[in-house]
Design a protein that fits this description.
Shape: globular
Radius of gyration: 19 Å
Order of helices and strands: EEHEEEHHHHEEHHEEHHEEH
Largest sheet: 4 strands, antiparallel
Strand content: 15-25%
Strand order of the largest sheet: 8-9-11-10
Distance between the termini: 24 Å
């Protein structure tokens, strides 16, 4: 029987499936070849992914022999900082000794939604351990240092100068200005498709409201939410018809078997809607093994990497 290979990767507070990469991925982002670990003579090939994902951000690297790592000088909109590559963690020098406490920013975003029907017993054990209260509080964290520079989000005051009010599918939502144009392109594609696709039209009609910027951390977790950067959007329908939208709410009802909930018992946007979001650089929380099916998050680097 087909099985998913689970990889314990924590990014944005989620344990994700690193499924087999699909050459036929229907998104606008072209795959970037990821080569072997960089030698001393060449910078990590994955650094080019960040250049493509954030074309207005300058990434300049130099090898630091005493650290056995590359120092990356990052410049954006008059702000600049130095980070050590640390296998895509982008850590400031003082955090380099604590690298094991942080997860790499790059991980394999699944092409398809992981299906519990194919989980092995070990898969279930791994997911349960990852989602435990102990691991949620004390597990590896997402290193926010690079994102805080790009979005000027390390302090609330400066960040909120970049938060803009916009509308998405007729609903008001506040987001970071850096993602506003991508979100508008998503809206345009969805509305065009809704003219001919009944399922997409129903999704638009049944949308109750949208939630974007919110200065907060992730629930039951020390990781900072990407809602706090204004780079995540939740799309809340008027009703979910007894279906489930968030893993932790399901866990509260069924602590032992929540991860085995069949896909058909989760509320999910139409697949075509998710493909549109992915074509503009947004990942969908419904593909996380600890799933959040109303959640989209701007991470073009992950779509280029996967």
């Amino acid at each position: 029987m087909k099985r998913f290979l689970l990889a314990a990767v924590l990014v944005s507070g989620v344990f994700l499936s690193c499924g087999e990469k699909n050459k036929d991925r229907a998104v606008a982002f072209s795959s970037v070849d990821v080569h072997e670990e960089a030698t001393l003579a060449f910078e990590p090939s994955e650094l080019e992914i960040f250049r493509k994902a954030y074309p207005d951000v300058v990434f300049e690297s130099s090898f630091v022999s005493e650290k056995e790592d590359f120092l990356v000088h990052v410049k954006v909109e008059g702000r600049e900082a130095d980070f050590y590559w640390s296998k895509s963690r982008f850590l400031p020098g003082q955090e380099l000794p604590n690298a094991k406490d942080f997860a790499p920013l790059l991980y394999a975003y699944p092409v398809h939604t992981p299906d519990p029907e194919f989980f092995s017993e070990q898969d279930v054990i791994s997911i349960k351990e990852y989602a435990s209260e102990e691991n949620r509080k004390n597990g590896v964290r997402t290193p926010m240092f690079l994102y805080n520079l790009i979005y000027e989000s390390d302090k609330r005051g400066p960040l909120e100068t970049h938060i803009v009010k916009t509308e998405f599918l007729g609903k008001r939502v506040n987001v970071h200005e850096r993602i506003s144009q991508a979100l508008l392109r998503v809206e345009k594609k969805i509305l065009e498709l809704a003219e001919t696709d009944p399922e997409v039209k129903s999704f638009v009609t049944e949308l109750d409201h949208a939630e974007g910027y919110a200065w907060r951390s992730i629930r039951d977790n020390e990781n900072w939410s990407f809602h706090a950067l204004g780079t995540a959007v939740d799309l809340i329908p008027r009703g979910v018809k007894n279906k489930n939208v968030y893993w932790a709410w399901r866990r509260d009802k069924d602590p032992e078997n929540w991860m085995l909930l069949p896909l058909e018992r989760r509320w999910m946007p139409p697949e075509k809607v998710t493909l549109i979001f992915e074509s503009e650089g947004f990942i969908w929380g419904g593909k996380w093994l600890i799933w959040d099916t109303i959640h989209y998050e701007y991470h073009p680097e992950l779509l280029l990497y996967s």
